[in-house]
Specification:
The structure holds 3 protein chains of 3 kinds.
Chain A (H helix, E strand, L loop, with lengths): L8 H12 L8 H12 L4 H11 L3 H10 L11 E6 L2 H5 L2 H12 L12 E6 L11 E3 L2 E3 L4 H19 L1
Parallel strand pairs in A: 1-2
Antiparallel strand pairs in A: 1-3, 3-4
Helix pairs in contact in A: 1-2, 2-3, 3-4, 6-7
Chain B lengths: L18 H6 L4 H8 L3 H10 L12 H6 L10 E6 L8 H8 L1 H15 L3 E6 L4 H16 L15 E6 L9 H8 L23 E5 H5 L1 H12 L10 E8 L5 E6 L4 H8 L9 E5 L8 E2 L9 H6 L8 E6 L4 H15 L5 H18 L7 H12 L7 H15 L1 H9 L4 H9 L9
Parallel strand pairs in B: 1-2, 1-4, 2-3, 5-9
Antiparallel strand pairs in B: 5-6, 7-8, 7-9
Chain C lengths: L7 E6 L2 E6 L4 H7 L23 E4 L6 E2 L10 E3 L3 H16 L15 H9 L15 E3 L4 E4 L8 H9 L5 E4 L6 E4 L11 H6 L5 E3 L12 E6 L8 E7 L2 E7 L12 H4 L14 E3 L3 E2 L1 H13 L4 E5 L5 H13 L4 E4 L8 E2 L5 E2 L7 H8 L6 H12 L4 E6 L9 H7 L4 E6 L11 E4 L8 E4 L4 E5 L13 H11 L9 H11 L8 H4 L4 E2 L14
The chains are: A alpha+beta, B alpha/beta, C alpha+beta.
Chain lengths: 167, 437, 537
């Protein structure tokens, strides 16, 4: 399998720095996978293979690691990955209603990506923000203390952003 | 001595997370003292004398843990800071890392000096993007100011700190799962012995301490162990962050002396049960703890008192449920979590967590049987104490206690064709109810 | 520190005071006292994973049951393997192992030798309390010879550890987590290494399946014989499994002095030629096919008409066969014995210490013991020279390997110069076209006798044939028939009898007997056993 992927100079530098922070190369695997995900947008088979070859770690080992953790995106997600916390504290304060509202507004169920490619919806386990339940994480940002109106507003805002990006 | 808030006093102030602000409050004075004046053994003795107990969940005496690390070794020693706060109902370490990250860094410096450590890793859960940024900022500031690096605060000692992000796995909050993950592997807990203090990360002696635990250290040095033990009960003293979530008017993190009454915490600090409803159940120490009924809530929030009440302080994540809560649905939620998070290494946990979710799922969805309650308790018995780490116990404790203490909810769901919420969803949207959970 | 090998730890096992060498695990130590503690993930050749939990026992040092595969014995330790706590822990694990297991033993190749099945009989529940749908995991090819039936996988990680620690190829991993976890390969990188087949052997359930053996036989119907692989000079100890006298599967047999618990795939799958269309099974002369009796008669006649005989031996022959050749050659003045060697292959070394020899034959050392160290060198040259000068009237050649090429062009040309050429061969081949007499030969796996491996270890190979199954007379029989015809031998002996003769006539073999070799063999130089201990085998 010919791998045509490569890190940008900036990412290469970050990777080199990572290697200096650990006594073993393998210990840098998790953060390097993050770098690869940021660089390539997804951690599919070629991307995992690239990291394995780069770090001289058996590809199967990388595969085992990537599939163990929930963060690594093995398939592409929408521009906005909406992850609704569904664990107890959020469930007690209406996370299921939040999910339903998003499903109604965008037309996708948890685990799906919208046809336009803008939105993916997931139910996830505890995000450590139980005092501001119900809450969701959209890409890197937390949106907390959500009312259903907040959810509507967020979706509108994301739609507007997406439209602008599209232009 | 009046109770002084050490974590949350300044969290509403602008720039409270910066080095400049922290220094203005007297920050890093204790670290400097520790580096220059204290002998390592004396530091360990002082922390032992303070009776500081780990704030991550197990409540192990911190000084004793440090004492297990071999003094004479040719291997490097490591500190791994457990910032993988992922116990449902817990969000206290996040406050420290976002609002006063330098307090944690100062604690790290003190620990490194006491144990003779040059390298520390802060293993922070991957979801905490903002906290990671704040922490990294603080680390960068500390390097720039010469607090970290080759000559920590001019002491000649080297202290390196690396912020290491997790990637989404509850099990990495478990001490040895965290170490395996830090080594770049699947985050599966390790067999003990050997214990981390002797053979931890990278096969070297390792101290694993929780964020809040380390953040106590500057204050212990500031007021002295003796004064510290006067805050709350003597054998598990100190200021403590309590997280209250669920059905209360004012959920949040509350800094109070160890030993505050659970009732006071809920009614006074968290504003009481929301919407004027009545209390039904409380999980006092993160979702892994045994549940308490409304009648059992006059208990002091400290390690011994909660143990005596048949539950645990754990991570001090208090989850409050009002009288409209169906405990079948609540348990189903908790069981889904543990099933999702079991690493799958040990048979009883891998299979047991999934089985428990399936049984409770059946009950909630109208397919329960009378025998199921005994079956749940029996499956729990078969899981507890039979695995490498405590995740199996963490799943079994709430299951066992919720089924026993709220039997009526389960009997009702079995006899009436499912939990009220499911029945409602099922009747309104047939087919739609089979969604997740 | 005290010397761990010599010091002894006193502990208690099921109420009995016992002693074992310090440092042993509870499981290993208990086994020495006849207490077998069940296990799935533990394998003596691999690192300790401690994940299956079936080996939990009660300890006086812990309120919780402890795992006996990783915890070690200690002074004053009291272990109970049959207490309520221990039994309950074991039974719990068994119930958990079975809830998602498909219980498809009737169609599973592992049935009959399945650890899960065995433990289930002893420790498992007699009915299931699990009424939900079982988890579904993938069934797929992992490599050219191995598939995974994921629903059966109990995630013990033996196979993953094997590929990491023993073969060093790391093709396998566990993917996903919790009860979704299952063994897999990286997409597009199959498990394809020379030791891969061992992963199937060590799988305690029927999750890893050998495509070579799939649906070939129920294991309880097969006959088993302890033998030695003839694929290379390592001489891995194996078990030959046959159905009606036909090989179905080869399995490695534990021998820490030779092959640990492993064998290579070249050896494992290197038996198909026995039943190929190119297998030589009927004797013939230049004119016609011969039946077995006629073939022997003709061989005797051809040999007795010759005065100067050349013998071309090969390194597949057993020490017993070589001894007969030696005896015959010695009785024929002017005869010469030389040897030929098949070309070397690759030597393969693995991180776990396992080695595949470059010499793709089992008994060069045996031949050199019997004929001297020059048999494949100067002696062979002498024979070649004699042939080219026309001083050899009859050639007897042996070819016991799987190749159809014969002993090489120079030998085929040279043999053509003799008046008569008697060729023993396992396989058909063009090189037999000009032979006066072609005799089917036994291949490794069909031979009874001994080989000496590259470490000078004398090991006993056994035949896969059933006692009443004789497709043709073996070399051992035909050579003795000749001796009887020339009255240099009274009666035909078994391989064991021939070996006794060899041991009496050779300093190197002196004192060794078949029965003393047992199934594990002995270094050739080991001190001779007490005379008279030999049984009839």
């Amino acid at each position: 399998m010919e791998n045509t992927l490569s890190f940008s100079p900036k990412t290469k530098k970050q990777y080199k720095w990572l290697l200096t922070r650990y006594p073993t190369r393998k210990a840098a695997l998790l953060p390097t996978l993050r770098l690869a995900e940021e660089e390539f947008g997804v951690l599919g088979i070629p991307e995992m293979r690239f990291v394995a070859d780069l770090m001289e770690i058996p590809p199967a080992f990388v595969f085992g690691v990537v599939t163990f953790y929930t963060h690594y995106r093995r398939a592409g997600t929408g521009t906005y990955h909406i992850q609704v916390c569904s664990t107890l504290s959020c469930a007690l304060r209406g996370s299921e209603e939040v999910v339903q509202r998003i499903t109604e507004r965008i037309g996708i169920k948890p685990g799906e990506t919208s046809e336009c490619g803008h939105f993916s919806l997931s139910k996830v386990e505890c995000l450590g923000s139980c005092d501001t339940a119900p809450m969701l994480q959209c890409n890197d940002d937390y949106h907390e203390d959500l009312s259903l109106e907040d959810v509507d507003q967020l979706i509108e805002q994301l739609r507007a952003e997406a439209a602008q990006e599209g232009n | 001595m009046a109770f002084k808030k050490i974590f949350t006093e300044h969290i509403d102030k602008k720039n409270c997370h910066t080095l400049a602000f922290y220094k203005k409050q007297g920050g890093y004075k204790q670290a400097a003292k520790a580096l220059k004046k204290w002998k390592p053994d004396d530091l360990i003795e002082e922390v032992k004398a303070s009776n500081l107990r780990g704030r991550g969940g197990a409540g192990f005496p911190t000084g004793v843990k440090w004492g297990f690390v071999p003094k004479q070794t040719d291997k490097p020693k490591y500190l791994v800071v457990n910032a993988d706060e992922s116990e449902p109902g817990t969000f206290k370490d996040r406050v420290i890392m976002e609002k006063c990250p330098h307090l944690l860094l100062e604690g790290i410096v003190i620990c490194c000096k006491a144990v003779g450590i040059e390298t520390a890793y802060i293993y922070i859960r991957g979801e905490f993007v903002f906290a990671t940024q704040r922490l990294q900022q603080a680390v960068d500031e500390a390097y720039k100011a010469g607090i970290l690096g080759d000559d920590s605060l001019g002491s000649g000692l080297k202290i390196d700190v690396t912020v290491h992000r997790g990637a989404g796995a509850y099990i990495c909050g478990e001490e040895t799962g965290m170490l395996t993950s830090l080594e770049g592997d699947r985050g599966q807990p390790k067999l003990k012995p050997p214990f981390p203090a002797v053979e931890g990360v990278f096969g070297c002696p390792t101290v694993v301490n929780n964020v809040e635990t380390l953040a106590n250290l500057p204050y212990i040095l500031e007021i002295g162990a003796k004064e510290y033990t006067k805050i709350g009960p003597e054998n598990s003293p100190g200021p403590k962050l309590f997280c209250v979530s669920g059905h209360v008017e004012n959920p949040g993190t509350f800094e109070l002396p160890m030993g505050v009454s659970l009732r006071t915490l809920i009614d006074k600090h968290a504003g009481g049960v929301w919407k004027g409803r009545k209390l039904k159940a409380v999980i006092p120490g993160g979702s892994s703890a045994h549940v308490l009924t409304a009648d059992e809530c006059d208990v002091a929030m400290d390690i011994e008192s909660l143990a005596a009440a048949g539950t645990m302080l754990g991570s001090a994540g208090v989850i409050v449920m009002d009288d409209t809560t169906c405990m079948v649905d609540a348990l189903l939620n908790v069981m889904r979590f543990y099933h999702h998070e079991s690493c799958g290494q040990c048979t009883p946990c891998r299979e047991g967590t999934g089985w428990l979710e399936k049984i409770v799922h059946r009950i909630a969805h109208g397919e329960g049987r009378r025998d199921d309650l005994d079956l749940i308790v029996d499956v729990c018995d078969r899981m507890v104490g039979k695995t490498i780490c405590a995740l199996a116990d963490a799943a079994a404790f709430p299951a066992e206690s919720i089924v026993k203490k709220f039997k009526d909810d389960f009997v009702a769901a079995i006899e009436n064709g499912g939990s009220p919420a499911w029945k409602k969803r099922h009747s309104s949207t047939v087919g739609g109810a089979a969604s997740h959970a | 520190m005290p010397d761990e090998k010599t010091s002894v730890t006193r502990w208690q096992l099921n109420g009995q005071e016992v002693e074992n060498p310090t440092g042993m695990t509870i499981m290993e130590a208990a086994k020495e006292h006849g207490v077998e503690i069940p296990c799935f993930c533990y394998h003596p050749g691999l690192s300790i994973a401690g994940n299956c939990r079936i080996c939990m026992v009660e300890s006086n040092r812990s309120p919780k049951p402890i795992i006996s595969c990783s915890e070690r014995i200690a002074e004053g330790l009291e272990i109970e393997t049959e207490s309520d706590l221990a039994v309950d822990a074991r039974n719990s694990v068994m119930e958990f192992q079975l809830i998602n297991h498909p219980l498809d033993c009737p169609v599973c190749d592992k049935a009959g030798e399945c650890v899960l099945q065995d433990h289930s009989y002893t420790h498992g529940p007699d009915r299931s309390r699990f009424v939900e749908d079982k988890n579904i995991r993938h069934t797929k090819e992992l490599g050219p010879t191995i598939s995974i039936w994921g629903n059966r996988c109990i995630v013990c990680t033996r196979c993953v550890r094997f590929c990491d620690e023993i073969s060093g190829t790391s093709e396998l991993c566990v993917v996903e987590r919790g009860d979704r976890s299952v063994v897999d390969v990286f997409p597009g990188i199959p498990i394809d290494n020379a030791m891969a087949g061992n992963t199937v052997d060590i799988c305690p359930v029927g999750a890893l399946i050998s495509d070579d053996f799939k649906f070939e036989a129920r294991v309880w119907n097969m006959d088993r014989r302890d033998s030695v692989c003839g694929g290379c000079a390592r001489g891995c100890n194996i078990e030959v499994e046959t159905l009606d006298g036909y090989v179905k599967r080869l399995m490695p047999r534990e021998n820490l002095d030779v092959n640990d618990w492993w064998m290579c795939d070249h050896g494992r799958y290197g038996w198909r030629h026995l039943y190929s269309e190119q297998r030589l099974s009927t004797a013939r002369n230049a004119r016609q096919d011969l039946d077995d009796r006629e073939a022997t008669t003709e061989m005797i006649q051809l040999l007795s008409e010759s005065d100067k005989v050349g013998f071309l031996i090969d390194p597949f022959l057993t020490c017993e066969e070589l001894h007969l050749v030696n005896s015959i050659a010695s009785s024929l003045p002017g005869s010469i014995v030389g040897g030929w060697l098949p070309p070397d292959g690759d030597e393969e070394n693995f991180p776990g210490g396992f080695t595949i020899s470059a010499a793709k034959h089992p008994n060069r050392n045996g031949a050199e013991q019997i004929f001297g160290s020059k048999v494949f060198a100067n002696d062979a040259k002498r024979l070649l020279t004699a042939l080219s000068k026309g001083t050899i009237s009859t050639m007897v050649t042996f070819h016991g390997g799987p190749s159809q090429d014969g002993p090489g062009k120079k030998w085929i040309d040279a043999a053509g110069k003799a008046d008569t050429h008697i060729a023993f061969s396992v396989m058909e081949g063009d090189w037999l076209n000009n032979a006066s007499l072609v005799l089917p030969a036994t291949a490794p796996l069909e031979k009874e006798g001994t080989w000496i491996n590259e470490d000078d270890r004398l090991q006993r190979a056994r035949s896969c044939w059933k006692p009443d199954q004789h497709p043709f007379s073996t070399e051992l029989v035909r050579l003795q028939e000749y001796q009887i015809s020339t009255e240099t031998r009274n009666r035909s002996l078994s391989a064991t009898g021939i070996f006794r003769e060899l041991a009496q006539n050779s300093d190197a073999f002196s004192g060794h007997t078949h029965s003393e070799l047992g199934s594990a063999g002995l270094p050739l130089s080991s001190p001779p056993a007490t005379v008279g201990t030999e049984g009839n085998s």
